[in-house]
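Tutorial handout. Part one gives the primary structure; part two gives the three-dimensional structure as tokens.
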Amino acid sequence: MRIANFISFFVFFTITLAVPVPRLITRIHTAKPETVTNTYTTGTTTVTLPPVEIFISNGVTYTFTLSSEAARAPTTTTSVFNDASPTTSSQATSDNTAQPAQDSGSNQHAASSSDAGSPSAPQQSMPPSSSSPVQSTSQETSAESPSASSQVTPTSASSSSPVSSSSSSSQTSSQSSAQSSGSGDIPAPTAIAYSPYTNSGSCKDSSSIRSDLNLIKSKGVNKVRLYGTDCGLFDTILPMAKDMGFKVNQGLWISSQGVDSIDDALKQLINYGQKNGWDVFDFITVGNEAVNSGYVKVDDLISKIKSVKSQLKDAGYNGKITTSEPSGTFINNPSLCKSSGIDFVGINPHSYFDTMVSADQAGSFVVSQQSQVASACNHMDVMITETGYPSKGDTNGKNVPSQENQKEAIKSIIEKTHQQVTILTTHNDFWKDPGPHGIEQYFGAVELFS
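Part two.
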């Protein structure tokens, strides 16, 4: 028995010496919370990654997540709403005060964001991307940004009453843009965004454009926002708009080619104004979400706005000039409103991108953004140059796109802004890319208005 035990011990000892013991190293790593600001909402999202165990054995590394996926859920902090109704600036909203945007100077469609952004985002001669829509951890392009294949101008909505310093497939128009269904019992906004494109992204014919403008007029809307200068703007759209009594928020679309991409469009605009007068224009917008889209740097846009303003003044234009961006762009870069020479601040707030805001709170959200930007910009007038709500797409927190919720959101926006707002957009825009949330094509809202 002793001999057997000795032999067993000898065999075990021999094997132990022959087989090296694995080298084990265990380390626990916990990532620091990351906070991201969403420029469409000015809210912040804090994402905390779960602890990770790193296990090393004989040169082989194994990584294990020590917590459940639930630990990855972001914590969102949103802006506090200011339900106070904004004070309308008579200067910015009067038709008599303001008078007279995307790809290169030729205004070709740009791919939809956001878009916000797209977002979207995202712009009628280059519609947003909205605005862009955007995920809680990324920026978006505006909800109106045209596709890259055909010549078009951006399409975002814009003509809202400003907050003053004292207050905080070619198809016809009906075919190319199916509208959201609705009872049509919501009061009309001051302005609505309009894109003269078919489903395939080509330009609509003059008959279809006239039909669209007649529909907009029949809803009691007297101002339209155009994002660019393509699709017969100077020969068709502007003459029709003038004959029908519209005021136009005319955009000069800045594309990914930078600030000089508007030069040809600016020359055409000046030529039109000198021959026909500037009275059809409500105001002129130099770029739509160009900074948010990464197309330009703030300093370059500031210089370009000053140059455009000087050229237009020399050409006889005495109206207002602005640029449109998500709220966060101005809050993070106040020099854009303080040093550019713009006559008021144009913002594109979209509540869909704030996961903590439901459709019925959209109006409170919009005026809150308006007040925050006014504060950041030395209490300049702030106009809502584009906002809206999708009727279809992905759920984003408390936001559930549907025709019912679109109606609820826009009703709230109209009430809180006292109709002084530009709504995105006239028709659903199937020429756009659906975007990361599948909402970019579904902002059509004209049928909601009485």
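Part three, for discussion. The longest strand covers residues 281-288. The chain is about 25% helix and 15% strand.
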